[in-house]
Amino acid sequence: MNLDPKTIMDSSSKRSAPGDDDGVAESPSGRHTNSTPLSLTHPISPPLKKRRLVNAEELEDKDHDTRTTPRQTFRSPFQLTKIKDLPAELNKDTYTLKDILGDPLISECWEFNYLHDIDFLMAAFDEDVRHLVKVHVVHGFWKREDPSRQQLQEDASRYKNVELHAAFLPEMFGTHHSKMFILLRHDATAEVIIHTGNLIARDWTNMTQGAWFSPRLPLLKPGQVEAQEPQIGNGAKFKIDFLNYLRAYDTKRPTCKGIINQLVKYDFSSVKGSLIASVPGRHPISPDDSIKTTQFGWAAMKSALKAIPVHETQPEIAVQISSIATLGPTDTWLKSTFFASLAGGKPQTPRRSTAQPSFKVVFPTPDEIRKSLDGYSSGGSIHTKIQSAQQAKQLQYLRPIFHHWANDSSDGVPLDHPQAKQHVSGRNRAAPHIKTYIRFYSPPSASQTSSSSSSSSSGAGNQQQQQTKRIDWALLTSANLSKQAWGDSPSSSSSSSSSTIRISSYEIGVLVWPALYSSSDKDTTAAASAIMEPVFLTDHHHLDHNDKAEATTTTTTTTSPTPPTIIPLRMPYNLPLQRYGPSETPWVATATHTEPDWMGRTWER
């Protein structure tokens, strides 16, 4: 389904008109929006204490409660934003900014980002409580004379309930690039949303973005101690790392102390995932991987992956980003430091080393930008450089692993199996601002127990009958491909035997993997009977729909094997990936592009 932008624009009757975001829609956390003000249908006063709180199991389909089959089903841990100029069938299970902030029960919001439009942010709150919500905006414009800081201050001055906080940035080339909401509610719950979009309208219109939503976190009861022992992937470890990340803002002056003091009181035990964050400065690399030590940058990724089971059948890691910085004239940092940190994992077989994965870097070409919904305008958010001699050398070692975003280039390398149908994400014309890092593997043909065992692809929309890839782990993050985001190569001082990592920027992301969703909550790193598979055009696996249809005729006996837990992962790009052709280059926003985009515009620089 490779949709031409002109065709999409001409089919306005197939999609909601601009401004129809207020129609009834369910958000990832079960919220609904509609044209009637939410405040008329939801009480603002706190509900009764016995109100059932949303927990991790809310990810499960409620429609499955009466099924006789024991298969657990889940919604994708990552969701995509709604794209304004795409039809409804390509916007299933998506969310908008109003879905996140439109709940009238929100009492306090902490918004972390790189770019901020205060009016755009405030318009997303429920109109009846917009002036009551305590809004904290954390930004990285630390120079008082910075025009961006001055504009932010001017915009915030129009709202008495908005407070600005400048993040501490000790590194010269660092930025406050993290993208996150922390929401506190009148019903005594909290929620963390880690996402990929700047807080500006363009990023929430026709750009592909993604988010991870925590469950609603209840307050700890008086005298209650943390129920979990910290373990990679569980809520107790996530809480330790998350609070340590926030404490980094207070290195020089109190910035996040207020929200830290509140979050300590909440129960994170329902969280499934590992926090992968970066904070500026030099950080020791813990040799013993202490569970109570928070690592940052690539060291955090390397530490977490040591505990995650990985498969050895044709592993490949797709690094999909919206910006590539200057990495150096040779691939030393890229391969020896960064790719090495992503290549680890816990072998499925003891005393056996893991197979080394191949790497693919997913980044759009100028032609893909020209064909995108916003044409060249979307290219202003996507960055790399190839003009200088050093950058030309970088292009030389990246070219063999560059892959397309849209995967439909006539100049690209033909697919290995051109007869195979593509798995269509529906986002090939929505330019990428999302950042994902995913390890795929090919399951042995004998173990095709899930999608290949099904003869139907109905219900999920274009799910293929034979899924060729599964997923060992997936990361959604604000971090692009740069030393500033992930940290430089490790260095050691003469006075210390320990190594350190130097990071310039703030970044934040969440790593997920199948074992987190197995039937046992006791071990989040065991190779359990759970598998993660890519899904397209929906947040649900097509077997979930098949199981519903078969529930009336299927009876599970005590001798029947328990089917594996299937965790769907919503894909932002088509599969399989298409490699760049010999003449193709990545999109460069600082270069002039004279070939008109689909709207007839050129890009002059």
UniProtKB/TrEMBL annotation:
GO cellular component assignments: nucleus
GO BP terms: DNA repair
Keywords carried by this UniProt record: DNA damage, DNA repair, Exonuclease, Hydrolase, Nuclease, Nucleus
Active site residues according to the UniProt entry: 177, 433
Region described as Disordered: 1-49, 409-428, 443-468
Polar residues bias locations: 30-39
GO molecular function: 3'-tyrosyl-DNA phosphodiesterase activity; double-stranded DNA binding; exonuclease activity; single-stranded DNA binding
Cell compartments where the protein resides: Nucleus
Interaction with DNA, annotated site positions: 482
Superkingdom of the organism of origin: Eukaryota
Binding site for substrate: 179, 435
UniProt record similarity statement: Belongs to the tyrosyl-DNA phosphodiesterase family.
Entry protein name: Tyrosyl-DNA phosphodiesterase
Organism in which the protein naturally occurs: Podospora australis
